[in-house]
Amino acid sequence: VLFLFCIFQMDTTQESYLDLFPLDAIVYLTPDSENALEDIDPNKVYVLGGLVDESIHKKLTLQRAQEQSLQTARLPIREYMVKTVNTKNYHSETLAINQVFDVLSTYYETRSWPAALKAGVSSGKGYVLPDAVK
C-alpha cells in the first residue's frame, strides 16, 4: 500500500509509485544511500523505505531503489549530528517510518536540519546534535 503524504491530507492506493510518478521525480529515502538529502524539493516525490529488522535486511531499500533506477538520498544525520558514547556502542541511522516523517515534516516547516533531526532522531540511536554533547 502506498501512502501519499501531503501537508493536510493522506491518500492511500494499491498502485505502485512507479506507475503514479515519473522516475526522475522519485527520490527513495534509504539510510544506505551515499547522498545526503540537502533540501526538500516540492516537485519531487519522496519514498520512505521501511523495514522491520535492519540487521537482517541490510541495504535492501538501497538495492530496491537501484533496481528501479531511482535517485536515492538519506537524512543528513552524519552531517549535523555526532555519535555519542553509550554502553552498547550502538549507532544507527536507520529510523522508523514515523521518525523519518517527523524529520521531514519538521524540516519542511523550519528549514532547519538540526531542529528536524532533534525532533525525529531519538538519543537511543546513538546520535545527538553537537551542542548536546557535554
Automatic annotation (TrEMBL):
<dbReference type="GO" id="GO:0052905">
    <property type="term" value="F:tRNA (guanosine(9)-N1)-methyltransferase activity"/>
</dbReference>
<keyword id="KW-0949">S-adenosyl-L-methionine</keyword>
<keyword id="KW-0489">Methyltransferase</keyword>
<protein>
    <recommendedName>
        <fullName>tRNA (guanine(9)-N(1))-methyltransferase</fullName>
        <ecNumber>2.1.1.221</ecNumber>
    </recommendedName>
</protein>
<dbReference type="InterPro" id="IPR028564">
    <property type="entry name" value="MT_TRM10-typ"/>
</dbReference>
<dbReference type="InterPro" id="IPR007356">
    <property type="entry name" value="tRNA_m1G_MeTrfase_euk"/>
</dbReference>
<dbReference type="GO" id="GO:0005654">
    <property type="term" value="C:nucleoplasm"/>
</dbReference>
<feature type="domain" description="SAM-dependent MTase TRM10-type">
    <location>
        <begin position="1"/>
        <end position="128"/>
    </location>
</feature>
<dbReference type="GO" id="GO:0002939">
    <property type="term" value="P:tRNA N1-guanine methylation"/>
</dbReference>
<dbReference type="GO" id="GO:0000049">
    <property type="term" value="F:tRNA binding"/>
</dbReference>
<dbReference type="InterPro" id="IPR038459">
    <property type="entry name" value="MT_TRM10-typ_sf"/>
</dbReference>
<keyword id="KW-0808">Transferase</keyword>
